[in-house]
Amino acid sequence: MTTKPLLLASSSPYRKALLERLHLPFTCASPDIDETPKPGETGEELAVRLAEEKAAALADRYPGHLIIGSDQVAQLADGTLLAKPGNHERARQQLAACSGESVLFLTGLALMDADTGSTWNVCEPFRVNFRELDEEEIDQYLSVEQPYDCAGSFRMEGLGIALFKSFEGRDPNSLIGLPLIALIDLLREQKIYPLAIAYRSSRRD
Q1: What are the site positions for Important for substrate specificity (predicted)?
Q2: Of 32, 71, 113, 185, which is the active-site residue?
């Protein structure tokens, strides 16, 4: 089993809380990258590229680590990509566009060996069917949670659940920003087994 420590390339408390569920020792660091889409880039390509760039941005600072990068993109039925809104007005526009629609959320996940640069990645799709939302409901929601740093303008882990009619996908954790099932798949490929590690830790306690 590898002894390389894990690093989560994120300052998000929500991703940190998700990774803690696996009972794996890890540290966090915040990457600094340009998240601007490239011309002609698909949602899947963008999500995976940003996840890889987040991991790569920390490789020099954290030699000897396996680095986890993750990023999310929302895509409307017409192919329009929804990035982080940044403010109330853009968030209002995003939720108005999502109202009554089926929106595809694409979460890119990358696991990088900081020493070799070897990277394993996956894109986890998850579809959200939104309720019909009027302007008052949208403004009420945004005033409560102010999800201006979230693709799609909602927080799945909070009141955002009130915006949805139904889900389609294998891992709702991806909506919060870290697809745990896909991550476990990647970790197991690198001989990292969360169940075994958690078991040994509990025996020591």
Answers
A1: 14, 72, 157
A2: 71
Say whether 71 is catalytic.
yes
| CATH number, domain 6-204 | 3.90.950.10
Q: What is the pLDDT of residues 150-203, one digit of tens each?
A: 888 998 888 999 999 999 999 999 999 899 999 999 999 999 999 998 888 888
Q: Which residues contact 121 (CB under 8 A, 6 or more apart)?
A: 48, 51, 52, 108, 109, 110, 111
* Helix segments in the chain, DSSP class H: 13-20, 43-56, 88-98, 135-145, 173-176, 180-189, 194-204
Segments of the chain with pLDDT less than 50: 1-2
Domain ranges of the chain: 6-204
Length of the chain: 205
